[in-house]
Fold this protein.
Amino acid sequence: MPDGEPVVDFATDWDHTDPQWVNNPYPIWEDLRERCPVAHTERYGGGWFPTTHDAVSRIANDTDHFTSRLVVVTKNKFPPNSPPAPVGPAPPITSDPPFHQIARRLLLPAFAPGPINALEPQIRALCNKHLDAQRGRDVIDAGSDYAQFIPPGVIAHMLGFPPEDDEKFREFVHLVLDLIDLEPEIRGPMFEPMAEYFTKQIEDHIANPRDDLTSFLLNVEVNGSKLAPEHVRGSMVLILVAGIDTTWSAIGSSIWHLATHPDDLARLVNEPDLMPLAVEEFLRFYAPVTMARLVREDYEFDGCPMKKDDWILLGFPAANRDPEAFDDADTFIIDRAVNRHAAFGLGIHRCVGSNLARLELRVALEEFTKRYQKFELDESSGVTWAPGQVRGPRHVPLRVA
Amino acid sequence: MKVTIDADLCQGQGRCFSIAPNLFGFDELGNGVVIGDGILTEGTLEQARLAQSNCPEHAIFIEEDR
Ligand code: HEM
Ligand code: SF4
């Protein structure tokens, strides 16, 4: 749902929710990279969109001039009660140095390779449970029958939430990420059920502490005191939101690619050892996550007169298609050996969940291609791409027999 | 020749230890660390270079013998 009129020129009036961008952003970015590498818009209260790997990297690494206080572009820039920098509403993603590092370090051990790799059997079982449910069908939806179930199951387990609540999680994610064009008065109250849900989970964990991330965040001490309740809640919301849509989109785009590129599907089926390289190329080519920053004070960047509180739409997916940074940037090369992609971001906010995301993506694709060695897109129903800053196909209808 | 990781640049992207698990490991935060003294042989130099060229943070350095 675009913010107003359809876009005519993305260089001076970009909108990442415009249908052209949502359906196929790559030609738009390529054009901008050549013509106007840092595009501008007056929409959303004013903002900038860098399209080169170099500019994205410099901004991601420049926390002096760009703050992470808000990372999702909305009309509603400063909702009342929005906690200020350096903490922000959802630490660590909305935090700036020096506080950022404290909030981030707390989460890192739980997402390090050791504990994450231990989840592999469970993720494999989850994948097979949802594949088993499709038995006997000729047409399945790899988005809504498969991809969308994997991440919520894993995150619910890590946070210690009831697994049967995954429908609720998807609503919360939708609220935070997709419904950005609603007026503040309408969007604000919609957050209440989510707040209530988290309160209930937190109360339950205080009454019955257990070995999960929620209990960990409630009990951990930094410099001798426990975390502020808003910090605990913010980090929990972040893990839920950052962990679900992102990975689901990555799984969905990858299966969509295989369904539309039979040569790549055949290679992956015949050479399963290619999977680790293929996963990195899926992440580069279909990088699902775009982040935002706010300009801290008036600042000139590459000749652009940026104003305090202007948005920066930080296009990691655009950086991943920059021919200056990648050979044949617009070609999907399933065994690309040199692949310095930025799908998980760059600099201090690099995705905390990247080990988990890679594991989920790899296992989900391994189990899917074990079950179905041949499949193609069912052209009779369309593929719809989610609008906003997390891009992936919501529905991937496949003919599997 | 010797390979090192600049801990200030490394953000734990984890490419190095999946590409060359015999040369790189990780600490309890998931950041990359060099296993042992990091001295490279003819056999391991190529792997180290491959890991280097995949590190998104440009945190891996290979020093020539002086
Ligand atoms: C394919 C899936 C995923 C992609 C592409 C992705 C991408 C990203 C990106 C680009 C950032 C950087 C944000 C910024 O610069 O502002 C980020 C941060 C983050 N991600 Fe992910 N993510 C994925 C999955 C996950 C999962 C599964 C989790 C956890 C359960 C997670 C948790 C986080 C957290 C906590 C941060 C904030 C880190 C910080 O600010 O220090 N992500 N992610
Ligand atoms: S690939 Fe680079 S950023 Fe990632 S763990 Fe290794 S050294 Fe660190």
Remarks:
- The domain at 10-399 of chain A is CATH 1.10.630.10 (Cytochrome p450).
- The longest strand of chain A covers residues 291-295.
- Chain A has one domain: 10-399.
